[in-house]
Amino acid sequence: MKRIFLLGICLCFLGSNCTSQESDLSFDNIILGIKPTYSDRRLHIFVENNMIITRIWIPEIDKKFVPQGLTIADDFILLAGYSSLKGGPAQVKVFKINPENGKVIAQFKLPKYIHHGDGLAYAGNSILWLVDNTGNVLKIDSRKAFQYGNAQKAILGSFIDGKSVELSSALEKNSPKFKRRMRTHFCTYDGKNLWLGRWARTGTPKIYKIDQNKALLKGRFDQSEILDSFKIAHRTQGAAWDGKNLWLSQGGKYRGGIQKIDQRRKGVVLKHIPLIGGAEDIEFTPHGTLWISFEAGAMKYRKWNTYFPLIIQLKVD
Fold this sequence. Notes:
Elements: E1 52-57, E2 65-73, E3 76-83, E4 91-97, E5 104-109, E6 119-124, E7 127-131, E8 136-141, H1 142-148, E9 155-161, E10 164-168, E11 177-181, E12 186-189, E13 194-197, E14 206-210, H2 212-218, E15 220-221, E16 226-231, E17 236-241, E18 246-250, E19 255-262, E20 268-276, E21 279-284, E22 290-294, E23 310-314
Parallel strand pairs: 9-15
Antiparallel strand pairs: 1-23, 2-3, 3-4, 4-5, 6-7, 7-8, 8-9, 10-11, 12-13, 13-14, 14-16, 17-18, 18-19, 19-20, 21-22, 22-23
C-alpha cells in the first residue's frame, strides 16, 4: 500500500542516516566555478550521489559570502546571499551564474535595509521576487538591476510581511511568548501567485499562497491577501514549483531533506529525499531537474562537520 506521510508526524529527515562523511571520490574534481581557498577540506559525501548532474562552487566563499535564495531565470542561476562582515551590516547581493561553466557573469547589490536575501522567485519577463528575513518582499526588474549593478533603481514595488503571530522566543526566557512581525524566509512562484513561507525551529510554521498584486497596492501582506495556507515542516529553507506540486527543502547543521508536497491536500508529503546539512533554497528548471544551494562550508559555518559549499543540480523524478 502506498505510504503517505503527513506533516506534523515525525518527519523522515529528522531521523535519516545522513551522516557526514568526507569524500575521496574522483568526482570531487568535476566541479565548476572557482574553488574556495580558505579551506583544504574535502567535500562530504552526498547521500544520493547518483542523483547529481552538475556541481558548482558557491561564489565568493573566501569573501565570507553566505548563500541563501536561489532561482532559475532564462536558463541562468540567480543566487542571493550576504557577506558576513564583522562589525557592520551585511551586504546582500545577487549573482547571475552560467550553469554550463559555473562562472558569475553579472551581479547586483541590494539596499542596506535588506539583510539576508533569504528567498528568490522568478516570474518571467525579468521580474524577480526577493524576500528577506526583515519582512520585506521586493519586486525587482532583474535586467535593470544587473545592468546597474544595484537594485535600488530597479525596484518596481514592495510590501512587508505584516501578519503578527505569537512565537516562542529563545532570547526572552522570562517572556516565552511575544508578538512580532512574521519574517519571510523563502518564496516561489506558481505561474500566477507568489507563495511565502517562514523558517521556524519550533511552533507551527506555514506557507502562504498570496495575491501579490493586492499586497503591492496595500504595501503589506495580511490575512486578506492569503488565498491558501497549510502547515509545513520545521526548518524549511526553500520552495519550488514543478508545474503541479510544491517542493520544500529543509536544512540544518547536521541534516536536511527535500519534500514533494500535495498542496491540494493541505501539505501531504508525496516524496522525501534525504540531504546532508546546510541545504538552502531550491528551484526547478524547465526540464524538470532541481537546483539547490548549500551554506555548509561558508566561512560563517566553518566549524560545522559538513563541508559542502556548492550549488548542485539533481534528478529528483
